[in-house]
């Protein structure tokens, strides 16, 4: 079986490739746990690190590392041009936010469930939905919630009072988690409402709308207790790896 898997990589080099189909990227060479996904048209860089059934890769748009099954190598094509990030001004991004929000509403209307590592749809994880929504208008965010928190412009205000929530604008990212790290993210819609993809352990399995309040339903209350802060997207991610 191993010999059959090796045949597609005979001409594979440590270089940049285009994805010819939606691909799963795993967090280890065993390819058992999804880390992220690469939609058709994305660029990835193959490294020289091979295991029996996988090769280590980096997604070019967000620098995200992972492992690609050797069974999917045939779905790669050597890139003719290297990936180059688009540059957006803060004002340009603000004009695009209604389309970002519309993407999340459309995603919610489709049958979906929470998928750890999901970025392609219809099934997303929390940060995957945020990344997909912004990239739908050409703006790249880092992959994970804690990375997105560090990437955005912080909005500092007293969340526990109505005056603080009023400082949020539609399109801001709201972060939840522990005092040490953001583990969840949603997109602010206005008036303290936000849309996000959450798991069934929080009372829902998929995309929904909740509110920053202690008086809401079970899901809203659960996340409100984990509120960390918020951030504003003012630029598009520029890759660091070359």
UniProtKB/TrEMBL annotation:
Q: Which InterPro entries does UniProt cross-reference here?
A: NLP_P60_dom, Papain-like_cys_pep_sf, Peptidase_C40, SH3_16
Per UniProt, the keywords (alphabetical) are: Hydrolase, Protease, Thiol protease
The NlpC/P60 domain sits at 94-235
PANTHER family annotated for this entry? MUREIN DD-ENDOPEPTIDASE MEPH-RELATED
- Give the Gene3D superfamilies listed for this entry: endopeptidase domain like (from Nostoc punctiforme) (3.90.1720.10), SH3 Domains (2.30.30.40)
Query: This protein's superkingdom?
Result: Bacteria
Family, per the entry? Belongs to the peptidase C40 family.
Sorted alphabetically, the Gene Ontology BP terms of this entry are: proteolysis
Q: Which GO terms describe its molecular function?
A: cysteine-type peptidase activity
UniProt-recorded name of the protein: C40 family peptidase
């Amino acid at each position: 079986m191993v010999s059959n898997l090796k045949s597609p990589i005979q001409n594979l080099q440590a270089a940049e490739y285009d994805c010819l189909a939606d691909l799963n990227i795993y967090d280890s060479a065993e390819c058992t746990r999804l880390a992220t996904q690469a939609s058709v048209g994305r660029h990835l860089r193959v490294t020289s690190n091979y295991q029996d059934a996988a090769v280590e890769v980096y997604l070019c748009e967000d620098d995200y590392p992972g492992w690609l099954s050797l069974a999917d190598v045939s779905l790669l094509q050597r890139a003719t041009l290297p990936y180059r990030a688009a540059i957006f001004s803060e004002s340009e991004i603000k004009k695009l936010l209604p389309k970002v929000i519309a993407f999340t509403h459309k995603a919610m209307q489709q049958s979906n469930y929470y998928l750890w590592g999901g970025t392609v749809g219809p099934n997303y994880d929390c940060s995957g939905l945020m990344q997909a929504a912004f990239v739908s208008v050409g703006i790249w965010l880092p992959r994970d919630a804690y990375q997105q928190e560090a990437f955005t412009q912080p909005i500092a205000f007293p969340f526990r009072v109505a005056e603080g929530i009023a400082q949020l604008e539609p399109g801001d990212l709201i972060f939840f988690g522990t005092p040490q790290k953001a583990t969840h993210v949603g997109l602010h819609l206005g008036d303290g409402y936000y849309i996000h993809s959450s798991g069934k352990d929080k009372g829902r399995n998929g995309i929904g709308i909740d509110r920053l309040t202690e008086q809401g339903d079970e899901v809203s209350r659960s996340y409100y207790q984990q509120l960390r802060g918020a951030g504003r997207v003012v630029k598009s991610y520029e890759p660091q790896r070359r």
